[in-house]
């Protein structure tokens, strides 16, 4: 490591790793989401929920596609979930507990299902955490005889959750009721915007795209605020209002994909150079009604390094496939490399890579309010960037590449000469 690079690394590590907690401040909570695909961040309300929780709090989403209250435990997912040692556990099942899902998943809403949910409650309490039960997200299937009303077969499982909540004195979020009310108020036409087109060309009225995820997560958060008032300081009413920059605001440079079939390069991340960080910090300071003095800025802003941030929604605005580095466990399984072409080399490697949400917030929040969607940040030395290299993420699990074959690398960006010229 050169002397210059060592100084950069030291400057950028200090504010992130050694920043002391505010004296007497209430500790930010760790919220754990548990459930099936309707809770995940790829096809459920989990993605929207993460956007509605303040960045100081930690959100761990352990939901798994296709699991029931029975199979989630039987397959070992619950053991991993409880080991996360969260402060609050939001637990929602039901969709895969119904008949037709197979004996490894089905439960009886009068016996085995409430027993499973009660056991989850007891085991969360046993580690000193707070369980919160959530009734199933409604299926958006409208009645043929009453077009404005939804049909549902989830009623017995919804009622079972309410009974367990009452018996165990557990906070309950009635997502079935609130999501039903929202869909019936909007009607079939407007509700259809939440639907997802399947590979077969049909419409999926159970799972959610990013728009639907945020819409239904807002219902979860509204009920959570009422059910657990202690969480209110970390729950956000409207994330878009805070994140939306005003005209004329300094903005980071876009992080661009390699050219597509038509030569188009798609933006899906942010690049913060020193000059951009200084401009954004000045605007934020003045907006807060404070005088701007660059001499008071932390080294993370004044260092010459480049910060490259991946935005959570993913490539071209779409959520990445679970298992490709951006599933619930991604922050502990992703690394970032600079590849000259497709040959791995130590040349130009990041000074540091941050994947912990709390660390990312500490690093970026002094100059950018819009950091909730950031999944990782790489710190690059601008003197070592080379045109034609690729900024890539790597996961410890195999991910299908463009050819459909498993690949440990998923290309993220092309660093072209035009990019380097603009970043300096």
Overview of this structure, please?
There is one protein chain. This protein is an alpha/beta fold and 424 residues long. The protein folds into two domains: 30-239, SGNH hydrolase (Rossmann fold), CATH 3.40.50.1110; 248-423, no CATH class. Helix content is 32%, strand content 19%. The chain has a five-stranded parallel beta sheet with strand order 2-1-3-4-5. Helix 1 (3-17) packs across helix 12 and helix 5 (112-126) runs parallel beside helix 6. The chain is globular and about 65 Å long.
Describe, in short, the structure shown:
The chain has 424 residues and is an alpha/beta fold. It contains 13 helices and 15 strands.
Task: For this entry, give a set of tags.
424 residues; alpha/beta; Rossmann fold; 2 domains; 5-stranded parallel sheet; 13 helices; disordered N terminus
User: CATH homologous superfamily of the largest domain?
Assistant: SGNH hydrolase
Shape: globular
Could you tell me the CATH topology label of the largest domain.
Rossmann fold
Largest sheet: 5 strands, parallel
Structural class: alpha/beta
CATH class term of the largest domain: Alpha Beta
Task: Outline the low-pLDDT stretches.
Answer: 1-25, 312-334, 341-346, 396-409
Q: Can you lay out the helices and strands and say which pair or pack?
A:
Blueprint: H1 3-17, E1 30-35, H2 46-51, E2 58-61, H3 71-74, H4 77-83, E3 88-92, H5 112-126, E4 130-134, H6 155-168, E5 172-173, H7 175-191, E6 196-197, E7 203-204, H8 210-227, H9 239-243, E8 253-256, E9 267-272, H10 274-287, H11 299-302, E10 306-311, E11 334-340, E12 352-354, H12 357-364, E13 374-380, E14 389-400, E15 406-415, H13 417-423
Parallel strand pairs: 1-2, 1-3, 3-4, 4-5
Antiparallel strand pairs: 6-7, 8-9, 9-10, 10-13, 11-14, 12-13, 14-15
Helix pairs in contact: 1-12, 5-6
């Amino acid at each position: 490591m050169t002397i210059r690079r060592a100084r950069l690394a030291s400057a950028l590590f200090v504010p992130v790793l050694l920043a002391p907690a505010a004296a007497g401040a209430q500790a930010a909570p760790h919220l754990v989401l548990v459930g099936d695909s309707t809770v995940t961040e790829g096809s459920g309300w989990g993605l929207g929920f993460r956007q509605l929780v303040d960045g100081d709090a930690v959100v761990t989403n352990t939901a798994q596609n296709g699991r029931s209250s029975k199979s989630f435990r039987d397959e070992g997912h619950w053991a991993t979930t409880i080991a996360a040692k969260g402060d609050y556990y939001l637990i929602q099942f039901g969709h895969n507990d119904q008949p037709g899902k197979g004996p490894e998943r089905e439960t009886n809403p009068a016996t085995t299902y409430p027993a499973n949910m009660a056991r989850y409650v007891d085991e969360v309490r046993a580690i000193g955490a707070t369980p919160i039960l959530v009734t199933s997200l409604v299926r958006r299937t409208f009645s043929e005889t009453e077009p404005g009303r939804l049909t549902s077969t989830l009623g017995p499982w919804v009622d079972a959750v309410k009974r367990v909540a009452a018996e165990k004195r557990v906070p309950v979020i009635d997502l079935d009721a609130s999501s039903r009310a929202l869909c019936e108020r909007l009607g079939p036409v407007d509700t259809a915007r939440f639907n997802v087109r399947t590979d077969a060309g049909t419409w999926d009225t159970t799972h959610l795209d990013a728009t639907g995820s945020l819409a239904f997560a807002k219902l979860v958060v509204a009920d959570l605020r009422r059910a657990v008032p202690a969480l209110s300081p970390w729950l956000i009413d409207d994330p878009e209002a805070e994140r939306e920059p005003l005209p004329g605001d300094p903005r980071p440079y876009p992080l661009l994909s390699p050219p597509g079939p038509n030569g188009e390069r798609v933006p899906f991340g942010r690049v913060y150079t020193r000059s951009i960080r200084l401009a954004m910090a000045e605007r934020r300071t003045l907006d807060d009604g404070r005088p701007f003095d660059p001499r008071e800025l932390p080294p993370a802003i004044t260092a010459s390094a480049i910060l490259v941030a991946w935005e959570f929604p993913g490539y071209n605005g779409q959520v990445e496939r679970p298992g490709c580095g951006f599933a619930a466990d991604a922050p502990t399984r992703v690394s970032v490399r600079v590849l000259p072409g497709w040959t791995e080399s130590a040349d130009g490697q990041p000074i540091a890579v941050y994947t912990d949400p709390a660390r990312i917030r500490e690093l970026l929040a002094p100059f950018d309010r819009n950091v909730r969607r950031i999944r990782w940040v790489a710190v690059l030395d601008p003197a070592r960037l080379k045109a034609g290299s690729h900024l890539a993420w790597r996961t410890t699990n195999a991910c299908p590449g463009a050819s459909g074959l498993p690949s440990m690398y998923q290309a993220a960006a092309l660093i072209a000469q035009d990019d380097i010229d603009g970043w300096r």
